[in-house]
Specification:
193 residues; mainly beta; four-stranded antiparallel beta sheet; 16 strands; 0% helix
Length: 193
């Protein structure tokens, strides 16, 4: 009696850094396998705004990340602009979208490898004819957000990554280039263009 699962055309799959047998897979819900993908269990309800009718699934998860610092600290982002966090392995979920621009494609959510409460989010607005570079950081599990990269060119953001060894270095990939910051996202310069 349930509605069919909604999968994004780039369905997010994430391998846990804490145990190579554990995989996460996003539909409109988050699924987890504890045995290399042989069996799956839903560990969330719908983490999107509920989907829309049309010939392409909408209301799907687009990005999933587990903190490399803490097993079960999970983040998801959806194509309809919602970001969620679970700090207990999927038992409870909190919508942490407040403070972010609304209704944009969440292109990337990236938990920090250096601070447990830090997370980066990239938003892509080209489906809304908005070509600004949207990059945000939270240092408190998404309760508050700081916009980064005021000097980034007006290009849709596809990827944001914190350097795994140096917490001050942040990389951003857009439709037209790759940019790097050495001051935790305050200023960026072109790395590849």
């Amino acid at each position: 009696g349930e509605r069919p699962l909604r999968y994004n055309w780039q369905t997010p799959i994430h391998l846990s850094k804490h145990n190579p047998d554990i995989l996460y897979l996003g539909t409109h819900r988050l699924y987890r396998s504890m045995d290399k993908g042989n069996n799956w269990e839903a560990i969330s309800a719908d983490l999107t705004a509920g989907g829309r009718k049309g010939n392409v699934p909408f209301g799907t998860l687009t990005t999933v990340h587990e903190s490399p610092m803490k097993f079960g600290l999970l983040y998801t982002g959806s194509d309809d602009g919602l970001v969620y966090v679970s700090r207990d392995g999927g038992e409870t979920w909190n919508n942490i979208t407040s403070g972010l621009p609304q209704g944009l494609w969440v292109s990337r959510v990236q938990a920090s490898a250096h601070e447990k409460g830090r997370v980066y989010v990239g938003l892509n607005g080209y489906r809304n004819d908005n070509f600004e570079a949207f990059v945000y950081r939270s240092d408190d599990y998404g309760r508050t957000w700081t916009r980064l990269g005021a000097d980034l060119p007006a290009e849709p953001v596809n990827v944001v990554r914190e350097d795994p060894k140096n917490p001050d270095i942040v990389y951003v990939g857009t439709d037209h280039g790759v940019y790097v910051s050495t001051d935790r996202g305050e200023h960026f310069s072109g790395l590849v263009k």
